[in-house]
Amino acid sequence: MSAAGQALKDRAADTGAPGKGETMTRDTTKNAGRLGGGPGWGRLWRFTVWSVMGFFLLNVVFMIATVAVNSVATRWFGTPLPEGMTLQWYGRAWDEFQLAHVLWVTIQVVVSVVFLSIVLGVPAAYGLARARFPGKRLVMLLVLLPMMVPPVTYGIPMATAMYQLGIGGTLAGVILSNLVPALPFVILVMTPFIEQIDPGLESAARIFGANTAQYFRHVLLPLLVPGMLAAGLLVLVRTIGMFELTFFTAGPSSQTLVVALYYAVFSTGVRAPQAIDAMAMIYMAITLVWVLIALRYVSPTQLVSRVKEAPREA
């Protein structure tokens, strides 16, 4: 470099002239501002999102509060608040809608569906997680099909077949119908969970002389318990709220709580709206308790999972 060029470079450094990197940074900032990426747009976007979410949540809170207040109101018409408060509607709903029997049926259905879905779904998930065969993705798609298709589309033909076989309208029919979407749900949750377990544990157990029963009891089962608990709680919450399939296959003596609530609202006859709201609050409280228990042990991210196949060996 000549002496004149070195002098010009030193002068630029002394006067604080921007270098090439600083010039590019300033140009990028200006372009970002022209494209609408400034802090003003960010604040406006956040304000819009929070406003929409707040409006939605506020409506939900007001709807729940209206049902809750009306369930303990003596008379509420044309006034901001009821004229009086009472808990008699809960006792009336308990007797009028036979909630003791309905809750017992709901418990039987939920426990049976959870137990059968775990007993049948965990071995199926283990087979899908460990086996490597052509068409595995197609098999997985067929297994998960009841979760992706609306229950109404296959619920009516399934209910028709059950009534022809003589199990429609019975407790067994309700359990089997709810098992159709519950079993794929367990497989969806458990398959990626099992894939995370090292297959070498079975080989190590075999080396130390463990048979299949000993390996399952002492090695595999303790590792599967957290996933089974998560799947069971999620199936429990899902079964409590399952309306379509239960409605199609339930009879007068095999109605769950959500179906009994529907009949209380839309069946013929004159019923006090406070008693119906009291029944709705009982259903809401039971569901909320189970949801809180499920969220205590289950992360919502477990609902979204993707089954990955291991790379094939060359």
Q: What do these coordinates show?
A:
- The protein is mainly alpha-helical and 314 residues long.
- It has 2 domains: 18-70; 90-303, MetI-like fold (Orthogonal Bundle).
- The protein has helices spanning 3-15, 20-34, 39-70, 88-96, 99-130, 136-143, 145-148, 151-165, 171-195, 200-207, 212-240, 244-249, 257-266, 273-297.
- The protein is globular, with a radius of gyration of 30 Å.
- Residues 15-25, 32-36 and 303-314 have low confidence and may be disordered.
The largest sheet, given as strand count, sense and whether it forms a barrel, is: none
Helix content: over 70%
Strand element count: 0
Whole-number tally of structural domains: 2
Low-pLDDT stretches are 15-25, 32-36, 303-314
The CATH topology of the largest domain is given as MetI-like fold
Terminal Cα span: 58 Å
- Give the helix/strand class: mainly alpha
Looking at the overall shape, the CATH architecture of the largest domain is Orthogonal Bundle
**Strand proportion:** under 5%
Number of helices: 14
Shape: globular
Rounded average pLDDT: 80
The CATH superfamily of the largest domain bears the name: MetI-like
CATH C-level class of the largest domain: Mainly Alpha
Write down the secondary-structure element order. HHHHHHHHHHHHHH
| Cα radius of gyration in angstroms | 30 Å
